[in-house]
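Notes from the 1:1 (GR / supervisor)

We went over the backlog. Supervisor wanted to see one worked example end to end before approving the batch request, so GR pasted a single chain during the call. The sequence is below; no edits were made to it. Supervisor asked that the structure be written out right there so they could see what the output format looks like.
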Amino acid sequence: MKGFILAAGKGTRLYPLTLEIPKPLLPVNKIPIITYLVELYLKNGITDIKINVQKKHLKDFAKWRVIYFPRKKIELMVERKPSGTFTPIAKKISPQWFREPIVVSNGDELKELNIKKMMSWHRQKGALVTVGLVRVKNPKDYGVAKIKGDKIINFIEKPRKPPSYYINSGIYIMSPEIRKYFPKRKKFSMLESDLFPKLAKEGKLFGYKWRGRWTDCGTFKRWEFAIKNWKKK
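Structure output shown during the call:
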């Protein structure tokens, strides 16, 4: 299997720290966040990995790769400016590489799930995009999925009355056909606003509910929680 990791965001909620250190390289128990993600990929048979990174952080990621995964097939794709979460996947990955469904993950979360099962489920459903959904106790702090059967109707951001306890866990299976949904003449494009709503309207956005450990490290509070609670098993 092939996998992509989104790691070129600015990490503004962790400023000024992320002005110097890219968010995926922040440590959780002395191990960079993205290391856990790559280990998850490798454990699930994902051996061909691409990671998009900001140009100013290329040396940091190159050093990380040498230290942690010197013999693994990991390509760093450089972005001069952040282009969102949809653009790198639809426009910057070669069609030859993206000929079959791939696994995509945000680079600032910790998660433990069986990706092989998620991929099988995606193929079985004939989905264009499958969003990994995880159940949380306090969904009001996140984008919450409104679900009908196996399909996602929409996501509601930080609702007062959540329609479910399931949120976007930042891991996806994507089929090559998503390219045709890319908005023309747009350099910055987001999965959450430019792709998912269109697929949901067409009934092609599926939600895969998984159980396991998950934590977001996108704010100081959540990063601190991860440091205190995430231990390697």
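Supervisor's comment: The first helix runs from residue 17 to 20.
Batch request approved.
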